[in-house]
Design goal:
This protein is an alpha+beta fold and 85 residues long. The chain is built from 3 helices and 3 strands, in the order E-H-E-E-H-H. It has helices at 7-16, 42-56, 66-83; strands at residues 2-6, 24-29, 34-39. It has a 3-stranded antiparallel β-sheet. The mean pLDDT is 95.
Length: 85
Amino acid sequence: MVIKLKKEMSKILLGEVEDIMPLIVSQKELDEDTVELEVSDINEIELLVNDEIVYRGLDKQDTVNNLGKCLYNLYDEILFQKSNT
């Protein structure tokens, strides 16, 4: 599946989500602000992003931190594109 993300979101996906690289088949910059990623398993990517939300996106009182907010936005974007393809 191919997903298109804003550069900021793609940096979070590629830089913050553990074990993501084996699932990225290819990546291409479409313009200054958009990156296209071909992924081998969108469901596994959703799971990995969700894991990062749980492990690193919440503080000790289960309050969403800044990374968590970014990860939630990323998760929502991936789910939206998956559902509308």
